[in-house]
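Quick one: co-fold with ketopantoate.
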Amino acid sequence: MKILVYGAGGVGGYFGARLAESGNKVSFIARGEHMRAMKESGLQLESINGDITVHPELVTNDINKVGTPDLILLGVKSWQLSEVASELKKIISKDTIVLPLQNGADNYEKLTEILPKENVLAGLCFIVSYIEKPGKIKHASFEPRIVFGEADNSQSERISIISNLFSEARIDFLNPENIQLEIWKKFLFICTISGIGGLTRVSIDKIRNSAYLFDLMKQTSAEIRSVANAKDIPLNNEHIEKAFQIIENQPQGTTASTQRDIMEGKPSEIENFNGYIVREGERLGIKTPVNKMIYECLKLMEEQARKTL
Ligand SMILES: NC(=O)C1=CN([C@@H]2O[C@H](COP(=O)(O)OP(=O)(O)OC[C@H]3O[C@@H](n4cnc5c(N)ncnc54)[C@H](OP(=O)(O)O)[C@@H]3O)[C@@H](O)[C@H]2O)C=CC1
Ligand SMILES: CC(C)(CO)C(=O)C(=O)O
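Sure, here it is.
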């Protein structure tokens, strides 16, 4: 299968490397020093599941050099999806499958504003990974997993094809009954911890040990649930409890990727997380005061970070 990974960071780099390791022709869109290092010495992966170095079919920053892929994995940030979708229009055919792996609740909608619905699946992933240095991805913790499906939850032939591909690459995956619910379950967890993590700048274990911050996280998640329910996403108390079990089980020192971006002064996904909940809340007539407080506090830092773009 001809695979393109667009964005060779923590997520794209990890899953792309595993697909290349299992014998697929994998090309990467990358840029800067990371691209140069990958071209020169291949893509190194240091992983709790075993270290590898792979030599991709092609590493480039120029989409025009890439032929038409069968599958495109999207490894960029959620706020970069619209720009990337416009680029992809140049190379996809009616059969190309586009699979987003981003955090966030509206990635499918962002993509299908620009790409034909027929090309796009809905998806997300779990992993803790990042670019440790140019040419090298570090997978530090979390059993990597991709959750994906057709937006209408049908069981199509292409879902079976990609499932086989992931099985052969020993990538754990799930085709859920309701992909939108899975996206919101992950969103509930990640949005609850990321904003407060970005504000406090401490790891999840420290946040959960503060009774005040723990209660703030509870309020954040209750607001997310209300917005989800108004959009007919059946998030319920059990999902909130499970999200908090995950929060309780995070090892000492764990931070979320968006929190790390905020702490490092980089552009973050805050607009797509707490910002999204605030905007959807306003649109649907649902009050979201805690998400608004978090968002408004972080917005100014975000504006500062984006001046560097
Ligand atoms: N990392 C993690 O542990 C997890 C992340 N996620 C989600 O996955 C998504 C990706 O995150 P993550 O992998 O951490 O992000 P990274 O920043 O590590 O990777 C994104 C990569 O895409 C590159 N990129 C962006 N735009 C372009 C472009 N136009 N051309 C070439 N390269 C480009 C970036 O390059 P540059 O740095 O130059 O901008 C960067 O190397 C996010 O939505 C995140 O929330 C989900 C689960 C876990
Ligand atoms: C919390 C985690 C690690 C789970 O995959 C994640 O999604 C992130 O850091 O963005």
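If it helps, The chain has two domains: 2-177, 180-306.
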